[in-house]
């Protein structure tokens, strides 16, 4: 009998109006129905010492939190969220279990692995061209994407020094580390692999005063996003799910 465990989506957005749409973006892009994608809001409850092997795979969403914020400037909720995600990362790495950290999550994973996160390579909210590395072109997850493709970004911090012993998979002109893999199954992306153009524009409206772009340029951002083709990154998310399921079944 095939083991079809559920997947888990972990959101870390305090803005209620952004939470449901992010979950739906992940669910649609991954190809999972709602019955197979559990959802935990980390800003509301702790996952404690969750063993990721309870699920076929885990997907970590984005957040307006920044890991580079000084510790004494972080809200207690953010400190708890980061502790939860760090424990999850350690367990996933120890068991090489499929977990995909996106946007905010890449900063958590980078720090757990001993790399560095800084503000030098932040990117304003926009579509950008992402280029696969040679390793990326042969990677089982990222390799389903074209060698060059457009993705949607918006982040104030990024990996400034790759951790040792990870595989660098993709970069952009403004951000040298867009995707990497640790072990064979733990992935991290700086761009948002789940969002459609409409999803991103709706999210931009929620965060228009958060410093990801000049608030008065919202309509111009909408036009730039609508003129770009940003369907490719979602294929990465679907492939991650396919391979996680195959691993569980195997």
UniProtKB/TrEMBL annotation:
Pfam hit, one: GATase
Keyword Transferase appears in the UniProt entry: yes
Residue ranges annotated for the Glutamine amidotransferase domain, each copy included: 53-197
GO molecular-function terms, A-Z: transferase activity
The keyword Transferase appears for this protein: yes
Keywords from the named record: Glutamine amidotransferase, Transferase
Database matches in Gene3D superfamilies: 3.40.50.880
Origin superkingdom: Bacteria
Protein name, entry field: Glutamine amidotransferase
Originating species: Agromyces kandeliae
């Amino acid at each position: 009998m095939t083991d079809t465990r559920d997947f888990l989506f972990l959101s870390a957005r305090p803005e209620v109006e952004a939470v449901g749409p992010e979950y739906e973006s992940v669910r649609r892009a991954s190809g999972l129905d709602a019955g197979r994608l559990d959802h935990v809001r980390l800003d509301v409850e702790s996952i404690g010492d969750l063993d990721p092997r309870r699920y076929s795979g885990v997907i970590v969403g984005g957040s307006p939190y920044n890991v580079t914020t000084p510790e004494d400037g972080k809200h207690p909720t953010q400190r708890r969220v980061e502790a939860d995600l760090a424990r999850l990362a350690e367990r996933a790495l120890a068991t090489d279990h499929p977990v995909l950290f996106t946007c905010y999550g890449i900063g958590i994973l980078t720090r757990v692995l001993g790399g560095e996160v800084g503000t030098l390579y932040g990117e304003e909210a926009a579509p950008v061209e992402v280029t696969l590395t040679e390793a990326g072109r042969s990677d089982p997850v990222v390799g389903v994407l074209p060698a060059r493709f457009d993705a949607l970004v918006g982040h104030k911090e990024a990996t400034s020094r790759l951790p040792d012993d990870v595989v660098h998979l993709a970069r952009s002109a403004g951000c040298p580390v867009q995707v990497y893999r640790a072990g064979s199954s733990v992935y991290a992306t700086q761009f948002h692999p789940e969002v459609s153009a409409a999803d991103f524009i709706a999210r931009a409206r929620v965060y228009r005063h958060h410093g990801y772009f000049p608030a008065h340029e919202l309509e111009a951002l909408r036009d730039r996003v609508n003129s770009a083709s940003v369907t490719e990154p979602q294929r990465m998310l679907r492939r991650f799910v396919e391979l996680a399921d195959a691993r569980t079944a195997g």
